[in-house]
Amino acid sequence: xxxxxxLSELKFKAxxxxxxxxxxxxxxxSKVVLSFDLQASEGLNEEEKFRVSEKxxxxxxxxxxxxxxxxxxxxxxxxxxxxQKRFLKILQDALAVAKIRKATRIPKSxxxxxxxxxxxxxxxxxxxxxxGLDD
Length: 135
Fold this sequence. Notes:
By secondary structure, this protein is of the alpha+beta class. It has a domain of 93 residues: Double Stranded RNA Binding Domain. Helix content is 46%, strand content 13%. The chain has five helices and three strands; from the N terminus they run H-E-H-E-H-E-H-H. It has a three-stranded antiparallel beta sheet with strand order 1-2-3, covered by helices on one side. The mean pLDDT is 88.
């Protein structure tokens, strides 16, 4: 993954934010929409493209484009920085290969210890009973 190349392939569009905010919201286009065409990317090799498309398939459009929005800040520049960081984080998470879990066995000593504690606890509880007539 070549981060610099990926960042150069991004397309940005500034649009008006929604919600309350008065005149600033009505006049300033501070919301940033990031678009990234996964299949046309040169910053990822074919294997990486496949892995990313599998992991983030629910976030991709039918054309294979990833769209991210950011309107957290009043500044367009800050929103652009935030959406770029979010984009790189999504790609890094999608490219991460999970470790294969190795099944482990419980040691015999641990099993013996558990059974010994269990039987001693049973003896303690048996000792609490009221003695019967037939004993």
